[in-house]
Amino acid sequence: MQYRLSNFTALLxxxxxxxxxxxxxxxxxxxxxxxVGYLAFALxxxxxxxxxxxxxxxxxxxxxxxxxxxxxxxxxISTIPSVFCLIGIILYMFNLNSFExxxxxxxxxxxxxWIKTANTIPAPAKxxxxxxxxxxxITSLLLxxxxxxxxxxxxxxxxxxxxxxxLMDGFRKYYRHPLVEVLLVGLFSVQLITGWIxxxxxISQSSDGYRTLQVAxxxxxxxxxxxxxxxxxxxxxxxxxxxxxxxxxxxSPGLLKDxxxxxxxxxxxxxxxxLILHLGLGLRIVLINHGKERLAKIxxxxxxxxxxxxxxxxxxxxxxxx
Length: 322
Ligand code: HEM
Description:
There is one protein chain. This protein is an all-alpha fold. It has a single domain (2-320), classed as 3 helical TM bundles of succinate and fumarate reductases. Helices cover 79% and strands 0% of the residues. It contains twelve helices and no strands. The protein has helices at 4-28, 34-58, 65-77, 80-93, 100-117, 130-155, 161-175, 178-203, 209-239, 246-249, 262-289, 293-320. Helix 4 crosses helix 11 (262-289) and helix 8 (178-203) runs antiparallel to helix 9 (209-239). It is globular and about 55 Å long. 33% of the residues are buried. The structure holds protoporphyrin IX containing FE. Residues 147, 150, 154, 168, 172, 175-176, 181, 184, 188, 225, 228-229, 232, 244, 249, 268, 271-272, 275, 314 line the site of protoporphyrin IX containing FE. Residues 147, 150, 154, 168, 172, 175-176, 181, 184, 188, 225, 228-229, 232, 244, 249, 268, 271-272, 275, 314 line the site of protoporphyrin IX containing FE (HEM).
């Protein structure tokens, strides 16, 4: 089988993911060499990136339905930073933290069994229609209003925690209005459902690198946003009854020096990058459909740079607060 080495590498990274995070944490608290910790974190970030790179390579053409399923599994590897957070948050709320690793490896085992035994992924998804893409695009424009303010809020933390808190207090006057909040969560739910129907359709077909990256970033966002809303509304506001503001985001000992919180670093970083790439790739399709190929190419380059720069700028104050 042609991709044996890359698939084996991807599997190794998935199996090692929780332990790589642990090594990074131990390095941050000087229990082991910091260099080993940083190398482990480089592999943590390599897990979603290599999952996408291997999927791009394998999705140009399927030679069997097993290839189709394997390439979908590679795409799902890109969601691991958020999946590991989701597992942790849900088990925490049920006071079942000790089942974290057994549950994580059960999910991995079930995915491997599915690759081996399932049937071909039928095309297209039952509810797919080209109009759904337009609806998905329009909802994203509405959500961009909140997302724009939300990212500015987190960039504001570069001016200090107080700046983050006062920005959030200002923006909350709008999005915390009960009607607006219901609408916001409702729109995100519509986006996740239409997004899944689109992804499910494109997953069943072979695709070029752009489409594969679009589907991968969509899947990352699906798990990221679900996990994030469960964390800030479910866990913080209802379960713990605390205010999910800056103090909660960086409570001592912070993201770097807490054995649980360290997983949030890759979750947030990959989530923000996936968001900006997903939006940029969506705009690229619109430009190409309007015959603006050259502009589309320039935009894609700018999208990659913007995604990395904004993600680093948002993570900087979160990490410095540790
Ligand atoms: C590093 C990145 C991010 C951090 C640190 C972060 C942090 C937070 C915090 C602290 C809240 C609670 C706000 C409040 O209670 O008023 C929140 C809410 C929320 N965030 Fe984020 N966020 C990030 C990225 C994102 C992204 C990329 C999205 C969407 C694509 C997103 C969507 C939401 C939504 C929908 C809410 C719920 C708003 C509400 O209270 O109704 N977040 N986030």
